[in-house]
Amino acid sequence: MLASLTDLSAHRRGAARLAASSLVSVLAVATTVLAGAGRAAAQETALAQGQGGATATMSGLKTYGTAVIHDETGDQEVSAGLFEMSVEGGGMLQTYCVDLLNPTQKDAKYHETPWSGTSLGTNQDAGRVRWILQNSYPQVNDLASLAKKAGVRGSLTEEDAAAGTQVAIWRYSDQADVEAADPEAERLADYLEKNARAVAEPTASLTVDPPAVSGRPGERLGPVTVHTNAGGATVTPPADSATSGVRIVDADGEPVGTVTDGTEIYFDVPDDATAGTADLTVHASTTVPVGRAFASESRSQTQILAGSSESTVTATATANWAKRGAIPALSAAENCTGDDIGGGLDLTAANEGDDAFTFELLATEYTIAPGETRTVSVPLQEDQPYDFTVSGTGGFEQRFTGVLDCQNQTTTAGDSTQTLTEPSPTTTADVTTPDTDVNLADTGGSEVTPLIGALALTLVATGGVTLFAIRRRDRDA
Q1: CA-to-CA distance for 415 and 437, rounded, in angstroms?
Q2: Residues 436/441/446/451 CA torsion (nearest 10 deg)
Q3: Which of 38, 50, 246, 259 has its CA 20 to 30 A from that of 282?
Q4: How far apart are CA 206 and CA 312, in angstroms?
Q5: CA-based nearest residue to 288, from 306, 302, 308
Q6: Residue 274: its pLDDT value, please?
């Protein structure tokens, strides 16, 4: 049953407030390569797959209670607890959200992401969030023991444990003034907040480094190093390997079918191969480490992993080759940690050819000398889809798409974020007799209408500088 406003006020914390400034910037990305790599098939880079790991679809908020957010506009009731996601290829994930005021879209696609690609990248308390995950439900499923540690007078239900854990996470992930409505859940939240300590970011379930290589026919292109927490992984060669003759081999030139953490693999390209490109895919089955972030492909609220079944994880590497000229290898990763630009895309360009590789970004020309690798940081507008292509003579073309989500903030005006069946979030100051049958709007509940807007938006305006400021709450000493 919902606690009254008077009861909640008795627990109220200091004068913390949620705030985020609006962003005003337009990204211009017009990329024309002046030197190319000969004929190569067009490639589309999906950052989700490029980073590797688990890819999953949001199933919904499954185990939850009620929380109340306190801010300048009043007190707002929200659902708080564990989400579930189904993994592509098999497996199930349990997550909490780290993006309090941004709704979760129904059936949103998520991919395993480094903290640096989310708001956790600039959050000095991100390690405390991971400690909470490791020391609470569902990692600790002995609820009687958890209740005793937290000083809970009664018993903890799964709903209480999930709500209390989520509330404690929000206090660090969003610097939120938020309380659990249930007294037992609130005591758990207080215990977790008080005892949380910084824990390092977990390693990825599966990645390959680098995700793109290049070179000449007759050479072994690479190495590509596999990083995984799985006991072993399977390598799938290029789809046309039987006809192209491209093999995946080790440093001695021996064919590779299975790999372990730290294994180096290569693309072995025949001497007579015409200029082209090929992909390999590494697959494994493993549990995804607790604390891994999951970002959506459509600005659905960011999640953090609380539990994982045995799940399918994948990573892909690409190779480009040509006999002469510039031979580029391009890869990209979203980066939320840039102090000056606020967030953007780190585009890494390598050139294993004998001519320079030249391209232009935001009115700046970059030249990658033969044998050189350089990373260019491209500023991006928060919450706005990006879509740009680096293309070159002879048919070389590589596309980068996604949406940057570096900030915890309310939804942009005009977005459709309410569910088809749920009311707007309740303002508790207007509630005199709580109705326990009301289906509260989730802070990212599982039935939210997808955001309206084209994800394949090409931005070709003048680049601007992204500015933001977040006013954080003062914590109790």
Answers
A1: 27
A2: 170
A3: 38
A4: 10
A5: 308
A6: 93
- CA dihedral of residues 138, 139, 141, 146 (deg, nearest 10): -100
Element (H, E) at 48: helix 47-51
First to last CA, the chain: 31
How large is the C-alpha radius of gyration of the chain? 24
Hey, which bits of 183-245 come out as E strands?
206-209, 212-215, 220-228, 233-236
Structure tokens at 84: 């579930």
Whether residue 290 contacts residue 139, with contact meaning beta carbons closer than 8 Å, is answered with yes
Which letter, b or e, does each residue of 389-415 get, where b requires 16 or more Cβ atoms within 10 Å of its Cβ? bbbbebbbbbbbbbbbbbbbbbbbeeb
| CB atoms closer than 10 angstroms to residue 257 | 9
Give the pLDDT mean for 33-49. Answer: 41
Question: Would you state the structure tokens that stand for residue 417, as one six-digit string?
Answer: 């974020």
Picking from 236, 245, 231, the residue whose alpha carbon sits closest to that of residue 265 is: 236
> What would the two tokens of residue 270 be?
């025949």
Name the DSSP class of 41: -
**Segment 62-107, tens digit of pLDDT:** 999 999 999 998 999 999 999 999 999 999 999 999 999 888 888 9
Strands 92-97 and 276-286: unpaired
| φ and ψ at residue 259, rounded to 5 degrees | -140, 165
What are the Cα distances from residue 395, in Å, to 37, 39, 275, 310?
8, 5, 10, 41
Greater pLDDT, 240 or 473: 240
The closest of 345, 319, 51, 347 to 208, measured between CA atoms, is 51
Q: DSSP 3-state assignment of 279?
A: strand
